[in-house]
Amino acid sequence: xxxxxxxxxxxxxxxxxxxxxxxxxxxxxxxxxxxxxxxxxxxxxxxxxxxxxxxxxxxxxxxxxxxxxxxxxxxxxxxxxxxxxxxxxxxxxxxxxxxxxxxxxxxxx
Length: 109
Known about the structure:
Elements: H1 3-14, H2 20-29, E1 34-35, H3 36-43, H4 47-59, E2 63-68, E3 71-76, H5 79-96, H6 105-108
Helix pairs in contact: 3-4
């Protein structure tokens, strides 16, 4: 893969993190898998909009899903994604200060 192609893929992947509600979803899922309904209730948006966001994040390979009966569960596809979010939160805290530090997935276990 050429460097330019890799940068284009990287930029496309990072689009996942340009929406505050998607970042909130990632933060919620750092605690473990949740159903669509659980996520929707916690972030306070319509279920259809929540499903669209979750599907977008799944197509970017940020989230994975599993079905159990009538429920659909989502979780973070790779702990490195959650850890990268923590690193970005720490960097932001360093820039603007006074933001609670998030714990990495490994620290939560």
